[in-house]
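Researcher: We plan to redesign the surface later, but first we want a full-length starting point. Tokens attached.
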């Protein structure tokens, strides 16, 4: 079983008045959040957990899919604390996805979900865990993360991934840029739209 944890606990201050999860691609009626959920389901995620934090009503306003939602009551503690709430509601392996991350096609994600082969984590090639890409965590590794105090300096996903022995971390080439990519700002969103139209 695989749970996809969608992290949407931030303030979304840099994205403008509208929450980044509520944006839409040209020609689409569904919100970005609904689109992300549809891709995760098509990829084979058995369960999807949406983690909310600051101003959750803004996110709920653009959600039209049935999923599990949990709220981080202390979003000011950072994204790792939101991740911990998502992991506490997860079952099996966990695919961690920041809500503003452009997902690769469902067929690529499905390949990622089938690639673990005893590894504790599967990360896209060149990715260091700082957001901007999906990361697949084994159930055991996810459980170990829940033991960390979010106030500990080591309580960061990138640090924990780097601490893994190389043989416990698999790198997979996906159809997404290997550099960090997220759509936090209006400018990043406009660049993404332009690139999508040029394809």
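Model: Full-length starting sequence:
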């Amino acid at each position: 079983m695989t749970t996809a944890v969608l992290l949407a606990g931030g303030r979304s201050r840099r994205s403008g008045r509208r929450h980044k999860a509520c944006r839409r691609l040209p020609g689409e009626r569904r919100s970005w959040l609904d689109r992300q959920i549809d891709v995760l389901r098509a990829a084979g995620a058995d369960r999807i957990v949406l983690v909310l934090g600051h101003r959750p009503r803004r996110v709920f306003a653009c959600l039209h899919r049935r999923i599990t939602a949990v709220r981080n009551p202390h979003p000011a503690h950072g994204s790792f604390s939101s991740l911990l709430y998502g992991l506490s509601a997860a079952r099996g392996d966990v695919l961690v996805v920041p809500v503003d991350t452009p997902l690769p096609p469902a067929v690529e994600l499905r390949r990622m979900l089938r690639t673990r082969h005893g590894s504790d984590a599967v990360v896209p090639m060149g990715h260091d865990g700082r957001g901007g890409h999906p990361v697949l965590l084994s159930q055991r590794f996810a459980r170990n993360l829940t033991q960390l105090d979010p106030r500990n300096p080591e309580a960061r996903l990138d640090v924990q991934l780097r601490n893994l022995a190389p043989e416990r971390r698999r790198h997979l080439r996906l159809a997404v840029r290997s550099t960090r990519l997220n759509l936090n700002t209006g400018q990043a969103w406009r660049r993404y739209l332009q690139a999508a139209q040029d394809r």
